[in-house]
Amino acid sequence: MSARILVVDDEPQIRKFLRISLKANGYEVIEADTASAGIEAARTGRPDLLILDLGLPDQDGQEVISAVREGSDMPIVVLSVRAQEMDKVEALDRGANDYIVKPFGVAELMARVRAVLRPRTPKDADDVVESGPVQIDLGRRIVTKSGEEVHLSKREWELLAFFAHRPDHVLTHKQILKEVWGPAHVEDTAYLRVYINQLRQKLEADPTAPTMLVTDSGVGYRLKLGE
What we know:
Blueprint: E1 4-8, H1 12-24, E2 28-32, H2 35-44, E3 49-52, H3 61-69, E4 76-80, H4 85-94, E5 98-101, H5 106-117, E6 128-131, E7 134-137, E8 142-145, E9 148-149, H6 154-164, E10 171-172, H7 173-180, H8 189-203, E11 213-216, E12 220-223
Parallel strand pairs: 1-2, 1-3, 3-4, 4-5
Antiparallel strand pairs: 6-7, 7-8, 8-9, 10-12, 11-12
């Protein structure tokens, strides 16, 4: 069965555009034009994914993210004209899985939709995650690149494993630092950059143009699956 996608946006033309684009790609679409209607549809419509605008007439979309997260772990993709880093970080910290700034392209949107629908739950401990020539064996705690084992320090492994449990998801600096280093280190972004660079040196074909551990500028990082 195709995934059911809930679109919450107060602009009729945007909803129409999304409805046509999503249906053309095989998705079922339900719609809401207010925050309250969106929250209700998220609870009763059994959607597999929420595409959410932040500028809603009755309530800010950030509050919708929090309300939905109280009872659901379905993926949330934000579509918003708000391009400031603080808005992106807040949405992701509240529980959104991705953030796309309007205007946007259909190809980009569909790629993001496929990405967040793919891993519905964190990877199990015995899973193997692949990104290009890199394989991350979570059960055996082994990383290989083109078949050759790559040695990682304890902290490098903990950081990479955190990404591997949430592939294709944007993770904010705060989320990463809190989970890998602890709550006392949520402001240590410079420290995080050091370890990201170390992983890129060991795993990327070209560390200066990463295709595996990619940066969402000012927000955080994501581990991209596939080629």
